[in-house]
Amino acid sequence: MKPLLLFLSFIGVLNACKPIELSTSETPVLEQDVPHKTYQPTGNVCLTSDGGFATVLLRQAFNQAVSLYNGISYITRNEVVVVKTDQLGQVQWSKLVGTGGSTPLIHPLSDGGYLVFQLIPPFLTQNTYQLLVSHLNSTGEVLTKQAVDGVNLGLYFTIQKILSLADKGFIISAHLGNESYFLMRFDEQGKLLWSRSYTQATNTLPGAYRLAATSDGGLMISWSGYNSAQPGGYESFLLKTDANGQQIWLRKYGLFTDNLTVSESTDKGYVLVGRNTSSTATAVLYKLDKDGNIQWSKLYPLRSTYAGTPIRIFASTDGYEFVFYAYPNSTEIVTTDLAGVEQIHQTRSEPVISSESGDILRLSDDSFVYMGLDAYGTIALTKTKPDKTLQWSSPIATNK
């Protein structure tokens, strides 16, 4: 097998965002102009300064479902919508932030405001993607719009997730293509500090990358993929970085596992959870030491008989909790002790989150808040108690 190499391209410390003028596509329009709304749970959910929650959704709006052959104009557009709720998930306000973009993400500010990111496609810019950031006040009014400047996003750029950090800053993860993972590090106020791409030079075709923060200010990146030269076909990787995204070490595992997601454990080691490729309705949990060496592994059959996909894993002083999307319409939450012995296994039929849509937030009392879509097209926030039993579920956006 070829030796494992990883090339990191540091794009540099960038000091500012560039102000832009609002284009015609960004001009606010009346709701009755395009009354039909179809929401997609593509954004994230965050805890706000007043103890409530905020999420950002992508919405497709259209005037009426008619054919152009009838001589009637068919208007359709993408809209980015922020929804703010109280502590019980009851909607306080919903605001249209921008149009023409995709893959929105939201970050709360300590003054009660928000930063909302949306990806503007090449045909609306100058032959390259543009990352647009809107600064909102505490009531959702747009104060400024700026383009993140100094980074060439190219023609194959896709946003993945936003990761909040202990210093109140955040990281946006993205893909520059099939093989290149891309991180942008921002401070608390949305100032871009650095950006870096990670491209592996192996025989492995990479799957989804996952990102986690560590207590020393660094990051963990996990991924897996198929390699025809590897017995069993699958290889998995774990990369440790410093606070500037520079590689510290890289580990390769010949595991029969894909879709790995990672978290730092309280002993400064790590836990990985993935899908068993030999039995896709089975979860696999790995405990690693601080250098990435495997200490033990355990299997957990899912209640769904179909393939499961890990969403997130969380570590605490008592054990580990991981969340799986189980095809076609359930979310499974498994809680273990520090030795990996299963303690609780919860199943939620609605709303459902998956690796492609929805989000999950863990609060300081170990309860979960997650956003997902139910069978009727309604997007809801759902909160569990610390023991993962249901506390409340509240609809926040209804398709019509």
Determine the number of helices (DSSP H or I, runs of at least 4 residues): 0
| Uncertain ranges | 1-32
Number of strands: 32
Biggest sheet character? 5 strands, antiparallel
Tally of individual domains:
2
Query: SS-based structural class?
Result: mainly beta
- Strand-residue proportion: over 45%
Separation of the first and last Cα atoms: 54 Å
Helix content: under 10%
Mean pLDDT: 82
Shape: globular
The Cα radius of gyration reads: 21 Å
Enumerate the strands of the largest sheet in spatial order, edge to edge or round the barrel.
1-15-14-13-12
Please explain how this structure is put together.
Helix content is 0%, strand content 56%. It is mainly β. The chain folds into 2 domains: 235 residues, no CATH class; 149 residues, Tachylectin-2, Chain A. It has a 5-stranded antiparallel beta sheet, with no helix packed on it. A hairpin with a 5-residue loop joins strand 22 and strand 23. The N terminus is likely disordered. It comes from Spirosoma arboris. This is PQQ-binding-like beta-propeller repeat protein.
Q: What does the secondary structure layout of this molecule look like, with pairings?
A:
Elements: E1 5-12, E2 17-19, E3 36-40, E4 45-47, E5 53-62, E6 76-85, E7 91-99, E8 102-108, E9 114-120, E10 130-136, E11 142-148, E12 158-164, E13 170-175, E14 180-186, E15 192-201, E16 205-206, E17 210-213, E18 219-226, E19 234-241, E20 247-253, E21 257-264, E22 270-276, E23 282-288, E24 294-301, E25 308-315, E26 319-326, E27 330-337, E28 342-348, E29 359-362, E30 368-373, E31 378-384, E32 390-398
Antiparallel strand pairs: 1-15, 2-11, 3-5, 4-5, 5-6, 6-7, 8-9, 9-10, 10-11, 12-13, 13-14, 14-15, 16-18, 17-18, 18-19, 19-20, 21-22, 22-23, 23-24, 25-26, 26-27, 27-28, 29-30, 30-31, 31-32
InterPro entries: Quinoprotein_ADH-like_sf, WD40/YVTN_repeat-like_dom_sf
Protein name: PQQ-binding-like beta-propeller repeat protein
